[in-house]
Amino acid sequence: MTRVNKWSLVLILVVALTVVTSCSVNSTTTNVSVGRVTDYRPMETRTLEKDAPAPEFQFINSGGQTLLLSDLKGKVILLNFWSVDCPYCVKEMPLLEQVYKDWQNQGLIVLAINTGETESKVDKFLSRRGLTFNAILDPGVYVSTVYEARYLPTTYIIDKTGNIVSGKIGAYSSADEIIASFKPYLQ
Fold first, then answer.
1. CATH code for 32-185?
2. Is 137 in contact with 57 (CB distance < 8 Å)?
3. DSSP three-state, residue 32
4. pLDDT digits 0-9 by tens, 1-22
5. How far is 97 from 169, CA to CA, in rounded Å?
């Protein structure tokens, strides 16, 4: 086989793999049970600061709707970074679910950003535990990097104006502790 033919064959294989991959991605987004980060804009290099705007990102929520974080202005957001393999994250999940169920009608949104795990693993985890808040896959750890979530779990509270008002590294120990972190911003 000549050198040109080998490169042509490689190019054809790359194009075929790209088409197959894009088709499988499209098929999973039509029947969404777990959301996904969909926007990989250049990362912001500024340091996260209290009372500063939360970095923007785009995602598909678990209902299949494409949103920007800024589309959620007017709501208080509990932005939690977690992993199925993190025992502290797993212990915290029922608390997040309880708070979500009790406070969603008062304007609380829980966005649980999973850091780098597969959809099937996360979906199975959520289903087994009956968790219903928005779980968003971050397979490239893009949002996790932007939000400096080096340790899991890491949680940020974003107020109704879109500013980061608090952050916590480590798991919450009770639903009351979680409520105390966001309740002042609901008014």
1. 3.40.30.10
2. no
3. coil
4. 555 444 444 434 433 333 333 3
5. 19
Q: Please state the domain extents for the chain.
A: 1-31, 32-185
pTM above 0.85, yes or no: no
CB 113, CB 138: distance < 8 Å? yes
| DSSP-derived 3-state class of residue 81 | strand
What is the DSSP-derived secondary structure letter of residue 45? Answer: -
DSSP code string of 104-163: GGGTEEEEEEEES--HHHHHHHHHHHT--SEEEEETT-HHHHHTT--SSSEEEEE-TTSE
Does a cis peptide bond (omega within 30 degrees of 0) precede residue 87? no
- Look up tokens 């957001």; give the residue: 77
Higher local confidence (pLDDT), 29 or 4: 4
Radius of gyration of the chain (CA): 19
Judge contact between 113 and 81, C-beta under 8 A.
yes
C-alpha count within 13 angstroms, C-beta hemisphere, residue 66: 5
Q: Which H or E run includes 4? A: helix 3-30
Residue 111: the pLDDT is 97
* Each residue's pLDDT tens digit, 69-117: 999 999 999 999 999 999 999 999 999 999 999 999 999 999 999 999 9
Distances (CA, A) of 108 to 28, 45, 131: 27, 28, 16
